[in-house]
Design brief:
Bound molecules: adenosine monophosphate, magnesium ion
InterPro entries: MoaB/Mog-like_dom_sf, MoaB/Mog_dom, MoCF_biosynth_CS, MoeA-like, MoeA_C_domain_IV, MoeA_C_domain_IV_sf, MoeA_linker/N, MoeA_linker/N_sf
Enzyme class: transferase
Pathway: Cofactor biosynthesis; molybdopterin biosynthesis
Number of strands: 26
Keywords: Magnesium, Metal-binding, Molybdenum, Molybdenum cofactor biosynthesis, Transferase
Cofactor: Mg(2+)
Largest sheet: 6 strands, mixed
Structural class: alpha/beta
Shape: elongated
Helix content: 10-25%
Strand content: 25-35%
Length: about 400
């Protein structure tokens, strides 16, 4: 008999419950385009231009009118069109215009014939094939129509969006200020890296994981360090975080042994719920409101802290930051070896997926103890095992979730 898991809160309910309460809390500001990398758009970007702005040639070749080629295969070159230097001259019947890639096609052009399909003898050009109407012409507005929404509010600007916005002549954009997130670790046993350990001490590793994930999300981090399990110091840290940040994220101190202690303090300061989630790793989790800031209390076990941040806190922070959040990709894979699992919780086991002879396959990284960090560092995906599922035999199909932006 396993322990009773019927009262545990499903991940999807926890997520929905949180997201319903949260709204974007970051004002917008106008920034020059190069400074906006990594920021979240505060409003839709409508294209001020058609792209391309004029009909132009996709090839180096000759602009032709089909009527001129109806009765013969030879035309006389009337002149040349270059990118940035349109052809301005006359275009008499029986003539073509030499044209380069990106040059505006002269008015009346039906097609561009690539130069490899022609033979030139001085300015007498022979066409080796009959062109199709519209061939090799990039039409004005064929990429983006004037006024079209090119990027919706909530888009986080990556290197891919920068040239797109520049191509539209957008010099500055309205973006959200970064979300400000205070963090601290709790525990008398924790020491900062760079200091010696006494017997019973361990290094505080969670803060480095949480900081790194916040950096990936573009948040501003206020790192309050390590706070011992001592009410007065914890209280002071909670109050400071609440005054200075939009969000406080702590690790540790929410498990059964310690929750009462933190709970008392948080009941006094705000409205916090302590949840037992039906996920593994990561059962204990706290969420709620301090007078000003939102609070997320992650479990102390390092793997649990990372996984609950990735699965629960990331979508919540995205909403607070005004950022559109895409659900992670999930794929089907074949278990290349048996996987231990007991029914009752949704497992996020750490796996290594690879391309096998029969498609995608996945192996466990070994010990799935939530204190064993190497299980996460060697993994490239979660193996997501349904709540009611038991042991998985080799050859069964399982769901894998490749690590996304936060953990890569
Ligand atoms: P707690 O949730 O505070 O009961 O902690 C659960 C386990 O995680 C204990 O073994 C702690 O020592 C460990 N732990 C808590 N916080 C950290 C941290 N910041 N870095 C590394 N391990 C931690
Ligand atoms: Mg602790």
């Amino acid at each position: 008999m396993g322990f009773d898991t019927s009262g545990l809160l499903p991940l999807s309910d926890a997520l929905q419950g949180m997201l319903e309460q949260l709204a974007c809390c970051c004002d917008s500001e106008q920034l020059p385009l190069p400074d906006a990398l990594g920021r979240v758009l505060a409003s839709d970007i409508a294209s001020p231009l058609a792209v391309p702005p004029f009909d132009n040639s996709a090839m180096d070749g000759y602009a032709v009118r089909l009527a001129d080629l109806a009765s013969g295969t030879q035309l006389i070159m009337a002149g040349k069109a270059f990118a940035g230097q349109p052809y301005q001259g006359e275009w008499p019947a029986g003539h073509c215009v030499r044209i380069m890639t990106g040059a505006p096609v002269p008015a009346g052009t039906d097609a561009v014939v690539m130069q490899e399909e022609t033979q030139a003898d001085g300015d007498r050009i022979t066409f080796l094939a009959q062109p199709e109407p519209g061939q090799n012409i990039r039409r004005a507005g064929s990429d983006i129509g004037k006024g079209a929404c090119v990027l919706p509010a909530g888009t986080r600007l990556t290197p891919r969006e920068m040239p797109l916005l520049a191509s539209l002549g957008v010099a500055s954009v309205a973006v959200r200020r970064p979300l400000k997130v205070a963090i601290f670790s709790t525990g008398d046993e924790l020491k900062p890296v760079g200091t010696p350990l006494a017997h019973g001490d361990i290094y505080d590793s969670n803060r480095y994981g949480v900081r790194a994930m916040l950096a990936r999300m573009g948040c501003d981090c206020l790192d309050l360090g390590i706070i011992p399990d001592e009410p007065a110091q914890l209280r002071a840290a909670f109050i400071r975080a609440d005054e200075e940040a939009d969000v406080l994220i702590t690790t540790g101190g929410v498990s059964v042994g310690e929750a009462d202690f933190t709970k008392q303090l948080l009941d006094e300061l705000g409205e916090i719920g302590f949840w037992k989630l039906a996920i593994k790793p990561g059962k204990p989790f706290a969420f709620g409101r301090l007078p000003r800031a939102w609070f997320f209390g992650l479990p102390g076990n390092p793997v649990s802290a990372m996984v609950t941040f990735d699965q629960l806190v990331q979508p919540a922070l995205a909403k607070l930051a005004g950022q559109h959040f895409e659900r992670p990709l999930q794929l089907q894979a074949i278990a290349a070896e048996p996987l231990k699992k007991s029914p009752g919780r949704l497992d996020f086991q750490r796996g290594i997926m690879s391309q096998g002879p029969n498609g995608l396959e996945v192996r466990s990284t070994g010990s799935q103890d939530s204190a064993v960090f190497s299980s996460l560092s060697r993994a490239n995906c979660y193996i997501v095992l349904e709540r009611e599922r038991g042991r998985v035999a080799a050859g069964e199909t399982v769901t894998v979730e490749p690590f996304g932006g936060l953990l890569l």
